Amino acid sequence: MNSSGDMPDAIAPFPQAAPGAAPGATPGAAAGLRPLPDLARDLVPAPGAPVARDAALTLLRRQLGRIQSRVQEAFEAHALSGLAAARALGELTDGLISAIHAYTIAEVSPGADGTAPGEPSFALAATGGYGRGVLGPFSDIDLLFLSEAPLGPRGRRAVEFMLYLLWDLGLKVGHATRSIHECLEDARADATIQTALLDGRFIAGERDVFTRFEAAFGAARADWGVGQFLLAKRVERTKRHKRYGDSPYLVEPHIKEGRGGLRDIQTMYWLARYAFGVQRMPELVGPDAPGGGLLTEREARAFKRAWDFLWTVRFHLHYVTGRAEERLTFDLQPVVGARMGYTRHGKQDGVERFMKHLFLTARDVVRLSHLLEPAIERAALGAPAVQKAPEPQLAAAGIAMADGKLIFAPDKDVAADPAVMLRLVRAARTRGMELHPLALRALIRNAPHAQALRDDPAAAGIFLDLLTGRESARWIRVLNEVGFLSRYIPDWARIVGLMQFDTYHVFTVEEHTIEAIAVLNQLDRNELEEAVPVASELIGQLQSRRALYVATLLHDIAKGRGGDHSELGARVALEVCPRLGLSTEETETVSWLVLNHLLVSQTAFKRDIDDPKTILDIAEVVQSPERLRLLLVLTVADMRAVGPKVWNGWKATLLRELYWRVAEVLAGGLSVPERDVRVARAKQSAAAMLEDQPKEAIDSFLALGYPGYWLSFDPETHARHAALIREAEATGAPLTVSTRVLEARAVTEVTVYCTDHPGLFSRIAGALAVAGASIVDARIHTMTNGRALDTFWVQDAQGGAFDAGHKLARLSVLIEQALSGRLHLDQEIRKVRREPARLRAVQVPGRVVIDNHASNTHTVIELNGRDRPGLLHDMTAAISEQGLQIASAHITTYGVRAVDVFYVKDVFGLKIENERKLAALRIALLAALGPPVVVEGTVTSP
After folding, report:
1. 20 to 30 A from 198, CA-CA: which of 297, 500, 647, 692?
2. Do both 174 and 321 map to the same domain?
């Protein structure tokens, strides 16, 4: 068997050592590696006189070390690409295995072939990846001991002797011992065994046995037919993608098993090999090739490039981690990217350039699979029976049917009428039908013709219908995967494969965008009524539905260009929308939505929505109830499309409350009347809730709160506070901690009532960090009696309510210990479980923004930095040390990026406007945002 039967490649594989040649004498020469010692001669220096086993192991270990080090040195010196290194390692391993086989023969059996008289001989074959002649640095070595008939005692002893030697060398060996008949019987109903045998390659022993097996297996494959193998591989691939990632654009991809990875390329090779017996993809090029030429030379080269690039990434992964690591996690991405020579270019970091190349490669693998698989099926099983479309309008549009699926009519020239690509997809959508695999193949090959449709009004109408119709995300994804979308909208091509090196976004930019469209589809189908009731209701009230869908398509179109992507994207929208057939009014609406698509979320999570100015400021920007509805729905779609852990009940509540308050202002309501009037109304409502209490008790409670307190809570909460304060005063308790789980908001409310003193917020925040609670919002109030009534809303590490009974009890104890000084916060915070190593590579530079315009009564401080246990404790301590009072805190985390906003005043209750004091505050906060400094076993802020 030719050992080149591995993957698509236009370059001949390393030559296999000729039978009888000294194994290990010249392997690696094809890769330019230094020759290795003649291992077989050293193991058996004289015929029938092998060295002792311990000496053999020493020789083998040395040789294995030479093999691994020489390949690694050549690879890391860029003398070998990943594919060349994999082949070199495979060839050198052949030499090692052959030498072990020769040593086994001399040690175990008196016969020249490893058997006693009358016993069957066996062939030693490589299977799996090793059978394809390629090995990763830490890959398994799969071996098949193949015989004409079941092995006897001496044969089994030889197999056992070899395996123990390999295991003692520390190699991971997969093995099977079968006769030819057993191989065929086991493979008959098991596609996994068929695949392993398909990769079989002779290494040593009885070549005639392996030759007879090849002939028998070839005949058996012809008898079984390619159909069963094709179906099994499709089922296997679907399960694998579901497990390792059904998108080729996951930001921590699995290089081997994920969609668009090495296994997908191997699957195409297996299908081609099974159907036609080809060894390399270039054998499918040209009219005389099997199947009549299933690939073009360009497509075969694309297979080779993808195969080589992915192998290079895989080798770096193995060498960097020192194990068979196949997932490219965040901590490994910058390391591998740097090793491969990716550096910063313009506005894009080296790691982002590397990952974009990887994602584009994965995209190419997906497209090549769509190209080759249906062609193999057609060539092996016969062309499908193409039928005339049952509806005259479909036939007139150039569409036919095959196997119950839609396909281009045989006489249709797609290049002459590229709009037929859109008509085909729309027909599938409208009729609820599938596209035939051959139709996808044609779409991929004809995608470049989409650029001719950019100024075609009829094509624009069909595209808008696809974008705004039912299941639009599904069909936009199809247009993206076949390459149509990048040709039709050139700006789209710039975000394909573009990732942001953070832990917040799960997908690349274009995949996130399609996910956002999918959320709009869910809202249209009313599938999210329970999770987002307001958006579910509003989407049916929109007058500008086309504008909403186009804005969703374009909201991140300008990412990766440097500058504010919202502003740049708004300009792009002004150019793209008219070409898509939108009116001037719709174009202006889309541009405005793209410009302001972050307004609602940033306001809800970073600003005090109980502050009247916050509501008035956003109302002034929005101005229109329709725009407010559009903006809320777009915000929900954008956030839910980021990743499964981003959305929670607390965020939904903040967005909902912000929407209704702004909507009331836009409708001319009185949600933001004068402050004194609002305070008076709040007190009246609180008094009504306390009507069963004595008048003196009610008056006493109403006198406790400053105006900010009354405007921060609803009447029910005021009533709970009154009961808490009344009980604390009656018992003389110095500290009261109350917890309440709010399941609808996915948070737990923690209320602390105690004597106020500087640094109180910081100590409570530290105690909550030690307890494992994450603060998402806070309100800090000092009452007229000098006591503090502070409220924190917290979640657990999974973004849910902090509701376990034992955890709540421990939380209360920790707060008491922190306030009494018995808990050494710095030391305890250090003990909090650290984040996974894969996330530590993501860096977030510290940033401090001080705003004296966002609120009429407070200075607003926005802090951006790398999240870590105790960060909030450090930041609030720095604020307190500057002599400032914290009125409220709004805590948001985007992956590992913390964005925390504090409303503060000075000791006189005024904004901080002195430039010198602001400069000192900025310096202190930047220091607090930095990593903690370890000093003699303790952790302190830098």
Report:
1. 297
2. no
Does any domain span residue 504? yes
Q: Categorise residue 35: left if φ over 0, alpha if ψ from -120 to 50, beta otherwise.
A: beta
Same domain, 753 and 892: yes
Within a domain: 209: yes
Report CA dihedral (464, 466, 467, 471) to the nearest 10 degrees: 160
- Both structure tokens of 774: 């994450």
Which structure tokens are listed for 639?
């956030």
Average pLDDT over residues 119-136: 88
Please report, for the domain that includes residue 294, its CATH number: 1.20.120.330
Q: Give the CATH number, domain containing residue 498.
A: 1.10.3210
Spatial contact of 600 and 655, defined as CB atoms under 8 Å apart: yes
Distance CA 712, CA 671 (A): 14
From 159, 190, 224, the end of a domain falls on 224
Element (H, E) at 922: helix 915-929
Give the strand pairing for 399-402 and 405-408. antiparallel
Query: For residue 601, what are the domain limits?
Result: 489-643
pLDDT digits (tens, 9 = 90+) for 63-113: 999 999 999 999 999 999 999 999 999 999 999 999 999 999 888 865 544
Q: Count Cβ atoms below 10 Å from residue 156 Cβ, excluding itself.
A: 15
165: left (phi over 0), alpha (psi -120 to 50) or beta: alpha
In a shared domain, residues 203 and 280: no
Q: Between these two residues, 395 and 801, which has the higher pLDDT value?
A: 395
Measured CA to CA, the distance from residue 738 to residue 754 in angstroms comes to 12
**Residue 406 is assigned to a structural domain of this protein:** no
Domain count, the chain: 4
Task: Quote the tokens at residue 344.
Answer: 């910063």
Same domain, 213 and 316: no
Per-residue confidence (pLDDT) for residue 499, from 0 to 100: 81
SS (H, E, C) 561-617: CCCCHHHHHHHHHHHHHHHCCCCHHHHHHHHHHHHCCCHHHHHHHHCCCCCHHHHHH
Write the DSSP symbol of residue 281: G
For residue 50, the domain's CATH number is 3.30.460.10
Percent of the chain with pLDDT over 90: 57
Give the whole-angstrom CA distance, residue 603 versus residue 740: 26
Q: Which helix H or strand E contains 935, and what residues bound it?
A: strand 933-935
Final residue of a structural domain among 643, 678, 696 = 643
Selection from 373, 304, 296 nearest residue 12 by Cα: 304
Whether residue 217 is found in the same domain as residue 264: no
Assess whether 121 and 156 both reside in one domain.
yes
For 774, the enclosing helix (H) or strand (E) is: strand 774-782
Residues 130 and 277 in one domain: no
Q: If you write DSSP's letter for every residue of 857-887 in order, what string do you get?
A: SSEEEEEEEE--TTHHHHHHHHHHHTT-EEE
**Tokens representing residue 939 in the block:** 């952790």
Residue with tokens 């469209």: 517
Element (H, E) at 939: strand 938-940
- pLDDT by residue (tens digit) across 626-674? 989 999 999 999 999 987 667 777 788 888 889 988 888 776 654 445 6
Cα 726–Cα 731–Cα 737 angle in degrees, nearest 5 = 70
- The per-residue pLDDT for 931 is 64
Specify the amino acid at residue 70.
R
Q: Which tens digit of pLDDT belongs to each residue from 17-36?
A: 333 333 333 445 545 677 78
Strand order in the sheet with 399-402: 386-388, 399-402, 405-408
With respect to residue 709, please indicate whether it lies within any of the assigned structural domains.
Answer: no
Is 195 in the same domain as 76? Answer: yes
**How many of the other CB atoms lie within 10 Å of CB of 256?**
22
Q: Kind and range of the H or E element at 894?
A: strand 885-894
3-state secondary structure 306-365: HHHHHHHHHHHHHHHHCCCCCECCCCCHHHHHHHCCCCCECCECHHHHHHHHHHHHHHHH
Global pTM?
0.77
